[in-house]
Design a protein that fits this description.
Layout lengths: L2 E5 L2 E3 L5 E8 L7 E7 L6 E6 L6 E3 L7 E6 L4 E6 L8 E8 L10 E2 L3 E5 L2
Parallel strand pairs: 2-11
Antiparallel strand pairs: 1-3, 3-8, 4-5, 4-9, 5-6, 7-8, 9-10, 9-11
Length: 121
């Protein structure tokens, strides 16, 4: 069964940190660009970050630049999103998605089920 599974979400205070993981099973992530997306209550899903298949190219939404870091370990078939200095507006369900491209996360083929991130004091 081909699937992506996110983990690492939870409740954190403003200013805190979380690290999300996205693990693939049933296929290798080596040839996929991986994106992190999020959907806040009442809002449309938005792209947060993207990493190329090699890991050599990354990009971020302006709202998370300087606070979030995406990385990947192809040997572990896993992609990470380190989130620091979290703000209440980062509250959302976070999804990872695999796109059959070396660099473009825009048309994912596989999606995870999502993990909830709540930022609140």
């Amino acid at each position: 069964q081909l699937q992506l599974v996110e983990s690492g979400g939870g409740l954190v205070q403003p200013g805190g940190s979380l690290r999300l993981s996205c693990a693939a099973s049933g296929f290798t992530l080596d040839y996929y660009a991986i994106g992190w997306f999020r959907q806040a209550p009442g809002k449309e899903r938005e792209g947060v970050s993207c990493i190329s298949s090699s890991g050599g190219r990354t990009n971020y939404a302006d709202s998370v630049k300087g606070r979030f870091t995406i990385s990947r370990d192809n040997a572990k078939n896993t992609v990470y999103l380190q989130m620091n200095s979290l703000k209440p507006e980062d509250l959302a369900i976070y999804y990872c998605a695999a796109a059959p491209s070396n660099v473009d996360c825009g048309s994912p083929k596989y999606w995870g089920q999502g993990t909830q991130v709540t930022v609140s004091s």
